[in-house]
């Protein structure tokens, strides 16, 4: 839909006819742009975008779609590798939402936009001037200055590329501080002259960097001589006529008389229905005269509703201080419920709804509006308020048909002043949903002459949604800022969206020690098991074949357990859970749970992996990061299986200690597991002890990530625990193959999952800790006297055979194919397998209770004592 079209009249024709301005270029240029006039000593005309969502209300899907499509073009231009290293920078105020949408299209690019709002305590990382703007100074205030210091491409996004001065100023400032090899300039329209185009090429050669340009359309504005003075006189004449109530051509002579023309003086419903197809509601009469009304009277708001969006705690409201891929995942997860809250608050008879953003706050309301558009039958439109003063003329050939004028309401640094909302008055909106950040939710907003009252004159229902203003915690007393999660392919072989690792990368540190040396150090008390890593076991060809055979036979069984535990979490724990898997055994399960939610409900649940170490607790810094970015009540800890329940107890104690020390509350320490043979938890997929193929291997089925490391010389008090990424094992990696094999069985187990979930909903799932009792009994019966050396269940037994020095394996009599891989590993390591009759688990692995180096022979096989 081209909302600038009015029965074939271009919304730039009024200016073109009076000033001789001509727009030439691509065929679609006039569909994208209209023209208006403004009082500005540098440029009289204003290019008014029909797809930007600033001055002209437009479908949010159209607005977002244009930005996202530009981002996709940037991604294609850069290629996968460079796009993964790119940073996107948008310009305030007009292009903050556009830049953010472009960043979404690029993929995982972090986003920052310039701002005209100084923030106390945040030092500028750069700045530049926008020479033609009414407010010229831009600040760059990233929370993490390193955001601008990388060497990947910098993508600069503005709504229009006219002279190139703003971009040159930006690149010049940033290149002096943070030089890089490549820049990409993105705009909805490229309106440079041939001379200006040459300047950009020359500048790129001057700094020795490549500069590319991506635009949706291109052309030029042909300006006759003296157009600036003519435009200024025309604006002054119409503003004066609006103030006096007279005609702009009354008594005109000379130059002014050339521009006089009959104009409509009444905002008719028909006019707005042709400008805004489908418009309904009350059209209001404006005072007679050529200029549309400023609506400075104090109207009465028929109905004002405040909406609690439940904005995720700690999530930035936009890119003023940076917006990372992890922030994007959190926002995507929260959007459907936020839009649903807006939909619920709308009057049921609303036929036409405007979602109105606030100056630089463009992206968040745009995304909520796009979700809302899909939820309601009403026609949804989106635009934002602005600092930019523009002449409003009620004529189909003019892009700004009406304007609302109201006082600034966010205590701006440059002092009080007027602000504007265009094409809202008389547009027939039944409801207006105004989005402001909390810095703008001030008495001025609610005053008799404030924006809310202005809106109340033109819509029977006004709704207010306040997004918390994000201010970085940069005081000296604040804990150190933690890095964003590590993601594939830079860290792990999982796709980036499947899991974020709250770990630090220790891939370049030598941490591996022979299994026997580690065991001796651990049992002698000389070292903790998390201070080193075992040498990664490389399975034989026979063992790999066994893994694949086990996966073929158990994939559907695993798929059902994944479905059951995920459905239980969604029903009982949180409708929008934040999955936090215990690295690394829990991580494949977390990914599968996330994929079940995608498969069944089309939702993308955030998923992170964190470290927990027996005897040391969970990574407190990871919990601190989670609490800062999510509601702790939504966090669901995920693991693969339970053994005797040691980690279950460890987690409960660690969370309690963290909450008491950090003053944070809401974390639920109960783990959700795929299998709970130890009867240690209430949230599980099954309590059967069966082979989960991801237990058969180490890093090669867990994204090529090692087990986690906690060592004082490597992990400081403000660091995440560490782990290694074994890139060199990529040839043996089956991590994604394991996931795909299970996901492929999702569709066939839906009915059985639903039936199992119904049964569990009414079952007594109280943990009996049967497994713990069995472990204590075995420890005493076999003279071990240390429950930590008894590893119950198929998964734990497998890990003993792969990573520790096993003594013997206890197998339940009659156990079948689930133990084929255990028997093979035991045979290869010379470990006896003893069948027992009464055993709550399929098998139990016993670590050598009296370990010394002499407990193994020269071939590494166990020696019985």
Automatic annotation (TrEMBL):
Residues 769-848 form the PELOTA RNA-binding domain. Residues 492-742 form the Cysteine protease StiP N-terminal domain. Residues 317-454 form the TRSP domain. Keywords: Glycosyltransferase, Transferase. GO terms for molecular function: glycosyltransferase activity. Residues 32-219 form the Orotate phosphoribosyltransferase-like domain. It comes from the Bacteria. This is Phosphoribosyltransferase. It comes from Streptomyces hyaluromycini.
């Amino acid at each position: 839909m081209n909302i600038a079209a009015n029965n074939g009249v271009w919304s730039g024709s009024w200016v073109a006819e009076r000033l001789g301005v001509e727009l030439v270029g691509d065929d679609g240029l006039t569909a994208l742009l209209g023209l208006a006039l403004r009082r500005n000593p540098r440029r009289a005309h204003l290019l008014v975008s029909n797809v930007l969502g600033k001055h002209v209300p437009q479908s949010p899907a159209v607005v977002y779609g244009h930005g996202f499509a530009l981002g996709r073009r940037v991604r294609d231009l850069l290629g996968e590798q460079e796009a993964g290293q790119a940073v996107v920078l948008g310009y305030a105020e007009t292009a903050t939402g556009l830049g953010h949408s472009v960043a979404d299209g690029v993929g995982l690019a972090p986003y920052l936009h310039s701002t005209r709002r100084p923030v106390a305590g945040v030092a500028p990382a750069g700045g530049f001037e926008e020479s033609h703007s009414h407010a010229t100074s831009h600040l760059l205030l990233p929370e993490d200055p390193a955001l601008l210091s990388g060497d990947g491409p910098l993508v600069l996004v503005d709504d229009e590329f006219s002279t190139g001065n703003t971009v040159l100023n930006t690149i010049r400032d940033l290149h002096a501080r943070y030089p890089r090899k490549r820049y990409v300039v993105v705009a909805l329209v490229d309106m440079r002259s041939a001379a200006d185009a040459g300047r950009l090429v020359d500048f790129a050669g001057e700094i020795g960097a490549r500069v590319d340009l991506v635009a949706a359309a291109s052309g030029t504005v042909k300006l006759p001589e003296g157009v600036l003075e003519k435009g200024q006189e025309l604006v002054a004449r119409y503003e004066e006529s609006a103030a006096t109530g007279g005609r702009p051509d009354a008594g005109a002579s000379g130059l002014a008389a050339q521009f006089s023309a009959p104009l409509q003086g009444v905002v008719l419903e028909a006019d707005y229905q042709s400008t805004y197809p489908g418009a309904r509601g009350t059209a209001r009469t404006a005072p007679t005269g050529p200029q549309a009304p400023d609506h400075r009277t104090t109207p009465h708001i028929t109905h004002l509703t405040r909406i609690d969006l439940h904005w995720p705690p700690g999530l930035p409201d936009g890119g003023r201080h940076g917006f990372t891929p992890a922030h994007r995942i959190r926002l995507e997860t929260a959007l459907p419920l936020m839009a649903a809250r807006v939909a619920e608050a709308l009057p049921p008879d609303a036929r036409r709804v405007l979602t109105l953003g606030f100056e630089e706050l463009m992206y968040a309301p745009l995304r909520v509006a796009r979700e809302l558009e899909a939820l309601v039958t009403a026609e949804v439109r989106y635009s934002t308020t602005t600092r930019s003063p523009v002449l409003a003329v009620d004529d189909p050939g003019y892009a700004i048909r009406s304007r609302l004028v109201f006082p600034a309401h966010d205590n701006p640094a440059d002092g009080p002043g007027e602000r504007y909302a265009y094409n809202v008055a008389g547009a027939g909106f039944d409801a207006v949903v105004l989005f402001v950040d909390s810095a703008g939710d001030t008495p001025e907003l609610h005053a008799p002459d404030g924006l809310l009252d202005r809106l109340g004159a033109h819509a029977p229902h006004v709704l207010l949604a306040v997004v918390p203003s994000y201010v970085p915690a940069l005081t000296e007393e604040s804990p150190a800022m933690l890095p964003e999660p590590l993601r594939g392919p830079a860290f792990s072989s999982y796709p980036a969206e499947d899991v974020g690792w709250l770990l630090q990368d220790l891939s370049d540190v030598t941490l591996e020690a022979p299994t026997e040396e580690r065991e001796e150090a651990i049992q002698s008390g000389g070292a903790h098991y998390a201070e080193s890593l075992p040498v990664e076991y490389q399975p034989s060809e026979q063992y790999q074949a066994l893994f694949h055979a086990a996966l073929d036979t158990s994939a559907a069984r695993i798929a059902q357990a994944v479905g059951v535990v995920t459905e239980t979490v969604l029903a009982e724990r949180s409708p929008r859970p934040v999955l936090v898997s215990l690295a690394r055994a829990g991580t494949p399960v977390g990914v599968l749970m996330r994929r079940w939610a995608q498969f069944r409900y089309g939702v993308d649940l955030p998923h992170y992996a964190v470290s927990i170490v027996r005897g040391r607790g969970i990574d407190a810094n990871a919990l601190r990061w989670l609490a800062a970015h999510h509601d702790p009540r939504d966090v669901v800890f995920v693991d693969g299986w339970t053994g005797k329940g040691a980690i279950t107890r460890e987690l409960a104690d660690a969370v309690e200690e963290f909450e008491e020390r950090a003053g944070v509350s809401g974390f639920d320490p109960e783990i959700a597991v795929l299998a709970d043979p130890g009867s240690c938890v209430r949230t599980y997929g099954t309590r059967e002890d069966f082979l989960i193929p991801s237990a058969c291997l180490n890093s090669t089925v867990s994204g090529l990530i090692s087990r986690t490391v906690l060592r004082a010389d490597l992990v400081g008090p403000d660091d995440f625990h560490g782990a290694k990424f074994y890139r060199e094992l990529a040839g043996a990696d089956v991590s994604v193959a394991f996931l795909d094999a299970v996901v492929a069985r999702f569709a066939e187990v839906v009915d059985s999952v639903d039936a199992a979930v119904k049964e569990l909903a009414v079952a007594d799932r109280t943990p009996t800790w049967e497994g713990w009792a069995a472990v204590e009994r075995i420890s005493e019966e076999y003279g071990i006297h240390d429950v930590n050396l008894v590893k119950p269940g198929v998964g734990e037994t497998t890990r003993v055979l792969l990573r520790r020095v096993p003594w013997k394996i206890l197998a339940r009599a009659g156990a079948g194919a689930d133990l084929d891989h255990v028997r093979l590993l035991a045979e290869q390591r010379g470990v006896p397998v003893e069948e027992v009759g009464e055993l709550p688990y399929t098998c139990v692995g016993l670590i050598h209770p009296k370990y010394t180096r002499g407990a193994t022979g020269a071939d590494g096989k166990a020696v019985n004592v």
